[in-house]
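HUMAN: Quick job: go over this next protein and say how the chain folds.
***
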Amino acid sequence: MKKRTWTLKVTAAAVPLICMVAVSTADARPPRSASSTVTRTGPAGNTATRQSSISTNGQGSYSSSSSYTGRAGNTTTRQQSGSYNPSTKTYTRSGTTTGPAGNQSSLNTSVQATGNGYQRSATRTGPNGNSVNTQGQASYNAATGTINQSRTTTGPNGKSATESRTIQTGTAPPSN
């Protein structure tokens, strides 16, 4: 039985949500759901409330929603969903955030496992319709304990920035 654990972290300026979705390629998990309401009261008596909910289908997919109402009564909402396809080893996620004035932004990502790493693609579109695209990949060399990562981000103006990183983790000690 092979298990995969994905940690998803969703953050906006005022709408944090952290969740874990477990996927087993050998058997399904039971569907699950959770929700929370958090109210914070500041020293001046101002309150802010965050409501969040998440549900999984037991097959590697999830959907979540959250809303944040600030002390001035302005509300920001976020809807998200994601799924894992074990036959293609691909995880996809999409989401929409709606601000207090009704402006929307969106996110679409796809990560596919490769033999020794991954390929990642992400598009973020802001409320004005401009998009930022990111393409990235990583590979791991077990013999040298080296991880090589690279990422290219292209902004709405067509200009790109590239980042490369090498991480030396060390090799595993020989087993006796």
Remarks:
- The CA atoms of residues 43 and 71 lie 12 Å apart.
- Confidence is low (pLDDT under 50) at residues 1-26.
- Residues 1-83 form one domain.
